Amino acid sequence: MLEELTAGFPILSCILFLPLVGAVLLWVVEDEDTVRSAALTIALVELALCIFVLLRFVPESAAMQFTERVPWIPALGISYHVAVDGISVLFVGLTAFLTVLVVAYSWDTIRHQIKLYMMCLLALETTTMGVFVSLDLILFFVFWELMLIPSYFLIKLWGGGAERHYAALKFVIYTLLGSVFMLVGIALLNINFHQWALLHHADQVYSFDFLDLLDVPIPLSQQMVIFWLMFLGFAFKA
C-alpha cells in the first residue's frame, strides 16, 4: 500500500526544498523558543524522509534511483535532474542526521540572532542536499555556489575567534576562485559532448547531464585537463 502511495512522488524534491521552505517560514516567527522548536521539527521531518529513502533504496541495483527530471533550459541541454546512487544516498542521510544534531546542540549554545542562525542552517541543508542529488552539472554548480551564502553568515556571525570575519571573506574568495576552474571544466565536458553529437548526428547537441556525458568518450589529453580543473575547483573549497 505504501509503495503505491509513494510511486511517482517527488520525494527527492521534498527532501531538497523542505529545509528552504522551512527557513522562509521561520522569518515570520518571533518567539525564540518557537523558532528553535520549528527548526528542530523541520530537521526531524527531513531526517524521516531521508530514512524512508534509505529504507526504500535497492543496493543491488547499479541504476540511479528516485529519479526526477524536468527540462530547465532545453536549448542548452540543462535540466532539473536529481537522483541518488549508493554513495549519494548515504551522504543525503548523513546531512539530515548532522543537521538534527547541530540544531539540537545549538539549542542552548546560540544566544544571539537565533532566527537568522536557524534560517542559515536550514538553507545550508538545502544547498548541501542539492550538491549530493544533482545529476545536471549546471544544477550542481548552482547549489555549489549557493552554499556560499549561508556558509558566509554562519562563519562571520557565529564562528569562533576574533578572525571570523576574515575567515568568512577568505572562504568566499577561495571558493569563487575554485569555481572558475570548475566552471571551465564543466564547459569543456559540454563542448566535448557537442562535438561528439554533431559527429554522430545526434538529436541532442548540448547536454550538461552527468549520465549523458558518461556515454561520450573523452580524448586522453582532455581528460587530464578536465580532471585538474575539477580537482582545483573542489580543492580550493576544501
Main attributes of the structure:
mainly alpha, about 240 residues, single chain, 2 strands
Write a compact overview of the structure shown.
The protein is mainly α and 238 residues long. The chain has helices spanning 2-6, 11-26, 32-56, 88-109, 114-133, 137-146, 148-158, 164-199, 210-214, 220-237; strands at residues 65-73, 78-84.
Question: Could you please describe the fold and organization of this structure?
Answer:
Helices cover 71% and strands 7% of the residues. The protein has 238 residues and is mainly alpha-helical. The protein has one domain. The chain has a two-stranded antiparallel ribbon. Strand 1 and strand 2 form a beta hairpin. Helix 3 runs antiparallel to helix 4, helix 5 runs antiparallel to helix 7 and helix 6 (137-146) packs antiparallel against helix 8 (164-199). It is globular and about 60 Å long. The chain starts with a helix and ends with a helix.
Question: What is the strand and helix layout of this fold?
Answer:
Elements: H1 2-6, H2 11-26, H3 32-56, E1 65-73, E2 78-84, H4 88-109, H5 114-133, H6 137-146, H7 148-158, H8 164-199, H9 210-214, H10 220-237
Antiparallel strand pairs: 1-2
Helix pairs in contact: 2-3, 2-5, 3-4, 3-5, 4-5, 5-6, 5-7, 6-8, 7-8, 8-10
